[in-house]
Amino acid sequence: MSGFLTSYAGLFAPSATDAPVVTSIEIPLIQRDYAQGRTDARASDIRERFLDVLHEALIGGNDVGLDFVYGDVEDGTLRPLDGQQRLTTLFLLHWYLAYRAGQLDNQHAWMRFSYATRPTARLFCEQLATAKPPSDEPDPAAWIVDQPWYLYVWRNDPTIQAMLVMIAAIHGRFNGCDPHSAWQRLVDTDAPAISFQLLPIDDMGSGEDLYIKMNSRGKPLTPFENFKARFERSIAWSGDRSTEFDHRIDGPWSDIMWRLRGDDDIIDDKFLRYFAFITDISQWRAGQLPGSARLETRALPLFGTDGPQADRSLEFLFHAFDTWSGADIANEFERLFATNRADLARQPDRLLLFGTETGTDLFGACCRSYGSTRFTYRQTLLLYAVLLDRADPSGHLPRRLRLLRNLIEASESELRPHRLPALLADVERIIRDGSLSEINGFNKAQADDEQAKSAFLMAHPDLEPILFKLEDHALLRGSLQAFHLDASNFAQRATAFESLMATSDAWSDLTSALLAAGNYPRRRRNDRDLQFGSPSNSEPWRTLLTGTSRAHLLPTADALGKVLDAVADGTVLRASLWQMRDHYVNSTQATGHFDWRYYLVRYSSMREGASGIYASVGGNMGYRVCMLEKTQMNGRYRDPYLAALAREADLGDAALLDGAAGPVFTGGHIENDRWLDLARSGTAVRCAPDGWVLKRPEREEFHERFDAVCAEFGIDAQLKLAIPQELRPGGRVDTSDRIQAGARLVRALTAAGL
Questions:
Q1: Does 165 share its domain with 243?
Q2: Which of 455, 587, 598, 733 counts the most CB atoms within 10 A of its CB?
Q3: Domain limit, last residue, from 270, 305, 326
Q4: Are 670 and 633 in contact (CB under 8 A)?
Q5: Model-level pTM?
Q6: DSSP secondary structure letter of residue 484
Q7: For residue 621, is pLDDT > 70?
Q8: Which pLDDT tens digit goes with each residue over 480-527?
Q9: How many domains does the chain have?
Q10: DSSP state of 149
């Protein structure tokens, strides 16, 4: 099939060849409306890429050929059967650069361009050809719509509206260029910057028959088909590999994807997602960050530039597909992974995956969901690990996948786009060598602990099933830094932990027992807040028990160990926790040392915060504390001392302004005063470092009764009920229970009618 090399302007120029003489172009009735100016996502993508090509040809100096334009030339009029979209865009580009360069006049033959599809489109083209916006017009499309010759009814013509969109897009792409230089490049018929092959219909048979044949395929090429064609051309440098790519993608690779088809029997979207995964992996391996660019923009330079990087990327691409040929893919992943602990009971050699909604088949999940939040970095790294081992089996995949799973789960803060190159390098070292000595991307504390656990299991291999089961606990997810690696009690403590954390029923009692066992909370990153366990929420427990080194978790591990030992030795779980609480409360009362730990252990209302987070002045727990519902003080929180005071006073909902549970606060600072208000009189009380401070009622009718109660309880001139204290290491500490003293005071105030 041969044609005549020409350009849009060259069509109208006299030629010494046998090319037909063209004096005008008319888009025939059988053609569709102009589509490159549509505003849907696919058309916008095509428009953007096409204008990139035209801009590079005119401004960048890289001439471009636009393939064949098929058409019937009769009496000098070219009626294209294929090429309508390109010719329309070239007409609009000629008009735009002509008016910008001051070259628009009635002598240009290329202006004779029209549509036979609608009279409105034909008239618009005629008017546009001679329309001359100012050369510095900031919005030529808006200028056209504002002209007196622009008819109101044209707003309903899809071709005209699409042309206006394209004019705006051309202006956006070429506004910054030198129009004179671009115009000369555009109309140079001897060395055209933008050319195509004109194939007259005489060489192709009947025009109507050809049009029917050309459109018998029905739908236009899909985005994947376009990508596939461009990708194949881009890897032509690879020789036989390019040919093999063409064979495999239409053969065995399609067979692989066909198993994933939906009800619509479409697999193109699955292909594109897996290509995106492979491209991202290849870029990360090369130390690049994919960013938000289109897949084609990233993939073609990566695979299409001859060199070691492209060669390595192509090798990975072929393996990433070939490895699944003939395999029962779902079964391969089912053999490796489980998504719940019940499955592990039947097949304990599998690895438990956490938090996945897409099942164990990582390949299928990738093809269905890659690029969305349903396919996470966790799954990406695990799928890459499986592919690595399938390329070079180590014989140790289950153990190495467990190491990797544990690192991934401990590295929530590290799973960030800019760290992916380092994370992939870590994955390669772990899967290929089992090495943990050069971890640069994952959480370093977890990597160190994986080495400690490995050494522990080498010395005590009989404990491996117990340790692995503990790692699989949903709260721990591989992190055991809160457990002492002591072979003498490890098994018993692991069993006790499973029992304690099985449901939230015992968690409130557990928070008191842990505090009775020691000062177990850990500091959060702001150094002001402390993380405790929660009576109702599992996430605070995970935050408390994981995510840092053994050294930082030593107080937590010590307290947890004592509790687990007590539970393991006891016959009734909660009774063992109560016994620890009661023993601590009784011994503290005997010594007269009523510090913050005593109050939190004794009064369950002071441990009810869902987040398990407490904020205190200077980060030191004392008598001015906030118990947070969420992670920050801009959410709801309580003053635990006021909550305990309200609960112990036991006055009912009507007596207190905020009800029997006490007040809830939002916003503010830890240093702010927080008050418990009596509903009738407005009398209020707050907790101070050295006692309770009262607020006098504003209404005079209550003053006499208020003063009488103050006199009865020895309230001083500053309206403070002082609590006896002693100076101990760390500061002043109560020597009597302030909650009981405060409850007696509040009951007296309400009994007096306040």
A1: no
A2: 598
A3: 326
A4: yes
A5: 0.72
A6: -
A7: yes
A8: 999 999 999 999 999 999 999 998 999 999 999 999 999 999 998 777
A9: 2
A10: T
